[in-house]
From TrEMBL:
<protein>
    <submittedName>
        <fullName>Serine/threonine-protein kinase BLUS1-like isoform X1</fullName>
    </submittedName>
</protein>
<dbReference type="GO" id="GO:0043539">
    <property type="term" value="F:protein serine/threonine kinase activator activity"/>
</dbReference>
<dbReference type="Pfam" id="PF00069">
    <property type="entry name" value="Pkinase"/>
</dbReference>
<dbReference type="InterPro" id="IPR047173">
    <property type="entry name" value="STRAD_A/B-like"/>
</dbReference>
<dbReference type="InterPro" id="IPR000719">
    <property type="entry name" value="Prot_kinase_dom"/>
</dbReference>
<comment type="similarity">
    <text>Belongs to the protein kinase superfamily. STE Ser/Thr protein kinase family. STE20 subfamily.</text>
</comment>
<dbReference type="GO" id="GO:0005524">
    <property type="term" value="F:ATP binding"/>
</dbReference>
<keyword id="KW-0547">Nucleotide-binding</keyword>
<keyword id="KW-0808">Transferase</keyword>
<feature type="domain" description="Protein kinase">
    <location>
        <begin position="18"/>
        <end position="207"/>
    </location>
</feature>
<keyword id="KW-0067">ATP-binding</keyword>
<dbReference type="InterPro" id="IPR011009">
    <property type="entry name" value="Kinase-like_dom_sf"/>
</dbReference>
<dbReference type="InterPro" id="IPR017441">
    <property type="entry name" value="Protein_kinase_ATP_BS"/>
</dbReference>
<keyword id="KW-0418">Kinase</keyword>
<dbReference type="GO" id="GO:0004672">
    <property type="term" value="F:protein kinase activity"/>
</dbReference>
<feature type="binding site">
    <location>
        <position position="47"/>
    </location>
    <ligand>
        <name>ATP</name>
    </ligand>
</feature>
């Protein structure tokens, strides 16, 4: 893994070019930091995935980095580059300063967003899903915590740690059978082992 194409200017795969600042998010096997990319004096997000804690999920990690490198849509988070630092995989991404919709609701909107704001966020998220599905990807973890906003109000869908490509075989309509995602947001067919599911599972989570 290294540089990923499609950016107007490249970000290096040299860890010394990045100054990690505060932690802004974490999960079972990853921590996200706000960081400075020193050559550009640019604020970025660095997702550090612990390869030891990921264990047998390395294929998921590889798939996430590959998916993010191929993305080219204004409503989907794209990776600038990724590289291994000791026992961690660093994925360099744009920094979404306002955080997730879930975070915003917890700290500033305990009663939920205004209806107009909800409509705007959902419209932009749906654009992201339409794009991903046309590219053959199922996100599989669509939820408020994975819908991010920047200071300009731009909405981006993030976190492909559990995404899947349904075009990696000859049958473009092939269903998935693995159990991944966040249970309370998951479609019934995803919760039923062996039943199989496709991109419609994302629409259930979206709704």
């Amino acid at each position: 893994m290294g540089r990923m194409g499609g950016n107007s200017r490249s970000h290096s795969a040299n860890p010394s070019d990045y100054k990690l600042l505060e932690e802004v998010g974490y999960g079972a096997s990853a921590t996200v930091y706000r960081a400075i990319y020193l050559p550009f004096n640019e604020v970025v997000a660095v997702k550090c995935l612990d390869l030891d804690r990921c264990g047998s999920n390395f294929e998921d990690i590889r798939r996430e980095a590959q998916t993010m490198s191929l993305i080219d849509h204004p409503n989907v988070v794209k990776a600038y580059c990724s590289f291994v630092v000791e026992r961690n995989l660093w994925v360099i991404m744009p920094f979404m300063a306002e955080g997730s919709c879930l975070h915003l609701m917890k700290i500033a909107y305990p009663d939920g967003f205004e209806e107009s704001a909800i409509g705007s966020v959902l419209k932009e998220t749906l654009k992201a899903l339409v794009y991903l599905h046309k590219q053959g990807h199922i996100h599989r973890d669509v939820k408020a915590g994975n819908i991010l906003l920047d200071t300009n109000g731009v909405v981006k869908l993030a976190d492909f740690g559990v995404s899947a490509c349904v075009f990696d075989a000859a049958d473009r309509q092939r269903s998935r059978n693995t159990f991944v995602g966040t249970p309370c947001w998951m479609a019934p067919e995803v919760l039923q082992p062996g039943s199989g599911y496709n991109s419609k599972a994302d629409i259930w989570s979206f709704g």
